[in-house]
Amino acid sequence: MSGHDATAELTDRVREATGRGTALRIAGGDTKRFLGRDVPGEVLGTSGHAGIVSYDPAELVVTARAGTPLREVEAALAARGQRLPFEPPSFGEAATIGGTVACGLAGPARVAFGPLRDHVLGMRVLTGDGRVLRFGGEVMKNVAGYDVARTMAGAFGTLGILLEVSIKVLPCPRSSRTLSLVRDQSEALAELGRLAGRAMPLTASCWTGGALALRFEGTERTLDEVQRRVGGTLLEDGADFWRSVREHTHPFFAARLPLWRLHVPAAAPALPLRGEPVIEWNGLQRWYALDTTTVHDVASAAGGHATLFRRAGPADAVFPRPAEPLMRLHASLKKIFDPAGILNPGRLYPDL
Amino acid sequence: MRPDSTLLRELRAALGPEAVLSSPESCVAFECDALTAHRRTPDLVALPGSTAEVQSALRIAAVHRVPVVARGAGTGLSGGALPVEGGILLVLSRLNRILEVDARRRLARVQPGATNLSISEAAAPHGLFYAPDPSSQVACTIGGNVAENSGGVHCLKYGLTVHNLLELVVATWDGELVTIGSALGEVPGLSLLPLLTGSEGMLGVVVEATVRLVPLPERVDLVMAAFDDVARAADAVGRIVASGIVPAGLEMMDGPALRAAEAFAHCGYPLTATALLLCELDGLDHDVQAELDEVTSLLERCGATSVRVARDAAERSRMWSGRKSAFPAVGRLAPDYYCMDGTIPRRHLATVLARIGEMSREAGLPVANVFHAGDGNLHPLILFDAGRPGELERAERLGADILELCVAVGGTVTGEHGVGVEKLGPMCTQFGPAELEVFHAIKRAFDPEGRLNPGKAVPTLARCADYGAMRVHGGKLPHSHLPRF
């Protein structure tokens, strides 16, 4: 297809940095720099390593170089009636497919189609000591070798520079409808609980400002029936609403306070925190704009954890820390892929 | 080899005398999994009845520096549970309880020895089921499913085991417990769950699994289409997927396979067909109706000689019965059969099937094809007679050739059965030394002394060097005329 293969240049840069022991801050479109701890070091840009390598709608797979703009991938899929199932946020026009996979973020549709890593089939990566490795492939079913590719997804570049990713895609729905129901927080959570037990084509849910928005997808006849059963009012600009939730352009996210992302059991009741959250993923993901660190305790008391998604200034702890035995495995894996520790050091944790 | 008497005494003290087998007569029942060409009577079989006993057994093994091979129901097809010399075979089938079904959170927490089907049975009263359904689902255990990342006929829509797992409690090589993943489905830090899934018992022993449940579909329909040309059937598969429909299952059988299945199960397959497609659609009533209309007209446009929709659940299960019994049905055609498991990009279905036909004729061994066409996962069944000198070796060579063909067109040597001991050689075709070295390093990170299922799943570089020497004919790689991508 088209684009530029910069594997050789990137490999040279990495080998040279390894030699000097210089840390590298990996950047695609640099749209998600706000997420995670600050990384010292030189910027290693991947946006020059771009282009869709292969895409055949009959395979339900797209393979693209890491620096390919996310919107280019999405446009190529849309032209053939397909999409990225995990509806990733871009947080800016410049977002790349590599950065998207490295950060592992999914949008509203995660509730129906699962997390980003579920859709990763394979990748080519550049390790911290300049090895170019290939894991997984371009087929749906592949159990040869350990599943390194899915472990790289969401690793924020700490295990390797993604060079090329193969992603499973899905057809776009025939039709989509967003219904809005007036509910307070507890009522909304109860409503979502009732929906969870039924075979409904629910592909997004969001409670904000006293209203529960539900997106359903399927044929018009199915959606008519869903609307009869669920009730509520039709949200005319549904697509705009979901985009604003996904991209954090919704007014809720304009607050100047630190933004916390909580992952708690979907059935957890309203949390004892100040202010009203935005609740997504049927209750699993809850956003709070709050200037307090008690969030961690509240999240863990509810059986979950909290991430400081957007911060006002430098912060030492952004992501919650896994248990110590797991941290030791993190360190061992880091050593395998980045023995000199030069790839995005400290982005996830100070010691990784 | 006689097990060390201290080792035996300590295991009996920890697990109870009846839970440790050491006599060859009782151990021989565990000599192989479903890949029966590879057998070894285990020296010692331990059957723990609790997580604590699994931990004890691992601690004792670590102290005595003996290897441990975990085993579920022994239905694996790649020799992953083949006992190793001087080791303990850790059989987890007694740990078979469903611990919890949470309908609100759509999950079930189960012990590793629970059968795949028992999870769906426990979830059914809540209108839910566990989606991955390997053909051995009546017997195979969830622990084994995790070890192999098992699939089934519904992967195209519902995914493999890895897509349906939330959390694992794993006993490490030295008996410690770690929790990998989370019932939330979101974890801080690196995602280790995919690394453990499909790791063939090399990284840890699963003692508890939390799996995702999905709602039972409102409506299910099954379409059967016959073709007089394999290429046309393969083309229809691609067109269905490209049309925006994701079938719950999309299966294909070639002439020999469908005739064997019909003779075995009397399921109404058209005997004159060259290829048969089974396409299952599920979901909400109106959606399924729309897809059904589209699929049937598409199949007709693709040149199907007959298209039939099952009238009711009874006819549907009869149509499926042939496909589900295809392996034993084909098995009746020859004294032995050897089942392969390569996956290829769908666009190469027709050419790869044609090439397998040529290779089968060259090798003088018949091959029947029955496979998951929707996700390109082939199961060529090589028919042979192990009683005839040299025929097993010829069958294995043909199998390796077929797997190399799959890799050459951009596929993989195993879609869902795992590498085990069977595909160590073909792994050398799919991965280079640098990737294999990473796999060995990952193994060391989890199991520094190499006690868990040693020698399986990842070939040593020395083995690959030998394999390469054997497989390169006249200085040329096999299929050198094929473009590599």
Radius of gyration from the alpha-carbon trace of chain A, in angstroms: 21 Å
Number of strands of chain A: 17
Number of helices of chain B: 17
- Percent of sequence in beta strands of chain B: 15-25%
Strand order of the largest sheet of chain B: 15-12-14-13-17-18-16
| Number of helices in the DSSP assignment of chain A | 10
Largest sheet of chain B: 7 strands, antiparallel
Class derived from helix and strand content of chain A: alpha+beta
Number of domains of chain B: 4
Shape of chain B: globular
Name the structural class of chain B: alpha+beta
Task: Name the helicity range of chain B.
Answer: 25-40%
As residue ranges, the low-confidence spans of chain A are: none
Percent helix of chain A, as a range, is 25-40%
Order of helices and strands of chain A: HEEEEHEHHEEHEEEHEEHEHEEEHEH
Low-confidence stretches of chain B: 472-485
Percent of residues in β-strands of chain A:
15-25%
Summary tags:
heterodimer, A: alpha+beta, Uridine Diphospho-n-acetylenolpyruvylglucosamine Reductase, domain 3, 2 domains, eight-stranded antiparallel β-sheet, five-stranded antiparallel β-sheet, 17 strands, globular, B: 485 residues, Alpha-Beta Plaits, 4 domains, seven-stranded antiparallel β-sheet, disordered C terminus
Explain what this protein looks like in three dimensions.
With 352 residues, chain A is an alpha+beta fold. Chain A folds into two domains: 7-171 and 330-337, Uridine Diphospho-n-acetylenolpyruvylglucosamine Reductase, domain 3, CATH 3.30.465.10; 175-255 and 257-310. Chain A contains ten helices and 17 strands. Chain A has an eight-stranded antiparallel beta sheet, sandwiched between helices. In chain A, strands 3-4-8-6-7 form a five-stranded antiparallel beta sheet. The longest helix of chain A has 14 residues, at 7-20. The model of chain A has no long low-confidence stretch (mean pLDDT 96). With 485 residues, chain B is an alpha+beta fold. Chain B folds into four domains: 5-91, Uridine Diphospho-n-acetylenolpyruvylglucosamine Reductase, domain 2 (2-Layer Sandwich); 100-215, Uridine Diphospho-n-acetylenolpyruvylglucosamine Reductase, domain 3 (2-Layer Sandwich); 219-329, 2-Layer Sandwich (Alpha-Beta Plaits), CATH 3.30.70.2190; 335-368 and 377-471, no CATH class. Chain B has helices at residues 5-15, 24-27, 51-64, 116-123, 142-148, 155-158, 193-196, 230-242, 255-265, 285-301, 313-324, 326-331, 349-363, 391-408, 424-430, 433-446, 461-471, and strands at 20-21, 44-46, 68-71, 88-91, 98-102, 107-110, 128-129, 165-171, 177-181, 205-212, 214-215, 219-227, 249-254, 275-283, 306-309, 336-339, 367-371, 380-384. Chain B is globular, with a radius of gyration of 23 Å. The chains are: A alpha+beta (352), B alpha+beta (485). Chains A and B meet through strand 7, helix 5, strand 9, helix 7 and helix 10 of A and strand 9, helix 8, helix 10 and helix 16 of B.
